[in-house]
Amino acid sequence: MTIKAILFDLDGVLVDATEWHYRALNRALHPLGYEIPRPEHLSTYNGLPTSRKLEILTASKGLPRELHAQVRRLKQEYTREEIARLCVPVGDKQELLRRLRDDGYRLAVCSNSIRESVELILLRSGLGEFFELTLSNEDVLNSKPHPEMHRLACRRLGVAMGEALVVEDAPQGIEAVRRLGAHICLVGGVEEVNYARIQRALADARGAAHQSTPAGLG
């Protein structure tokens, strides 16, 4: 199968926003006497929607469930402040997406963040114009690590799951791609997201498709 679409995670892949969300949530939790230590954030919480993080905090640290709405509201307020202060146009990612679009690939964002954050980051980073589809955790019933978001993106783009390459960095997104059975370009952060790395992942996907083609049909 030929790869026709490339689906990007946003935070930690195209924009170095993971730290913004981490600081915003801890800032919202601090007056209530709660905090997520950084190692725990990286091992357990990274890549999850805020609602899921709060459920884990309730189960593991006793955060009262009746405080969830307050924490979510404050966290989003502080996230907006972080984005306004730190999110600027990212020229290298603009050039990357321009080249991929010119190569004929259909581009989409699949993010576990809420729609407001996704759209604000795409606007301020100058990346929004390159995507024909943007999905947030509000567009699905089940966020990552469930594969629903990537499956929905493929359906809306009109491509088969085997025709998509997914660029992911967080454990939740990686697990979603594994469950989906799509091709993946695994990165360790925004600094690893470049044209050469994606071209290697595309070549690997083509090689895997060729190996799975029965003899005489390739």
Neighbour order of strands in the largest sheet: 3-2-1-4-5
Number of strands: 5
Strand content: 5-15%
Q: Identify the CATH class of the largest domain.
A: Alpha Beta
Count of DSSP H/I helices: 9
- Averaged pLDDT: 93
Q: Strand pairing plus helix content: what structural class?
A: alpha/beta
Number of domains: 2
Helical amount among residues, as a percent range?
40-55%
CATH level-two architecture of the largest domain = 3-Layer(aba) Sandwich
| Largest beta-sheet characterization | 5 strands, parallel
Give a written overview of the molecule.
With 218 residues, the chain is an alpha/beta fold. It folds into two domains: 5-16 and 89-212, Rossmann fold (3-Layer(aba) Sandwich), CATH 3.40.50; 18-86, DNA polymerase, domain 1. It is 51% helix and 10% strand. It is built from nine helices and five strands, in the order E-H-H-H-H-H-E-H-E-H-E-H-E-H. It has helices spanning 18-29, 38-45, 50-61, 68-86, 91-102, 115-125, 148-157, 171-180, 195-212, and strands at 5-8, 106-110, 133-135, 164-168, 183-186. Strands 3-2-1-4-5 form a five-stranded parallel beta sheet, sandwiched between helices. Helix 1 packs across helix 4 (68-86), helix 3 (50-61) crosses helix 4 (68-86) and helix 4 (68-86) packs parallel to helix 6 (115-125).
